[in-house]
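Sequence in, structure out.
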Amino acid sequence: MVLGEREGGQRQAMEQDGSYILRSNATTSDATTMWSMYMQLVRIESAFKSIKSDLAIRPIWHQVQPRVEAHLFVAFMGYCLLAALRKHIEHAAPGLSPRAVLEQLASIQMVDVCLPTSDGRWLIMPRHTEPEAEQSMLLEQLGLELPSQPPPRIRSGSLLLPESAAEQVPTSS
């Protein structure tokens, strides 16, 4: 290969860098229509990628039609929420993906603190964990705030607890 040919190939590659070439056997569509159809395909593929990776929804082999429809509905609603989050963070936090936002905020949890009272009832205090400094900054940047801590409530009777938690609850004797 002659040096001039190599430089010419490099120049041609630089001129085409960032360009798309669409090839189709459709003869009835113009370039603008073809491009919009291609971009629609890209968005659909991106949606399926989000459903599989960000939402971790995998194929489940249901045997009954209503369950198939319910699974599709839940997957679609999850994707709608993800798309809404993507749109919300687009201007507020342009460098972050929805997955990054969810990962950052994942440690904020809602818990029920259950304390037995002397008369056999339970004091239940729903509480959310306090956000770390980075989480508070992200919430502020997104224009979101955690709800106020709900008031405590009192319940008589037994609590419905998981087996592991029930073993740790002291019984009154």
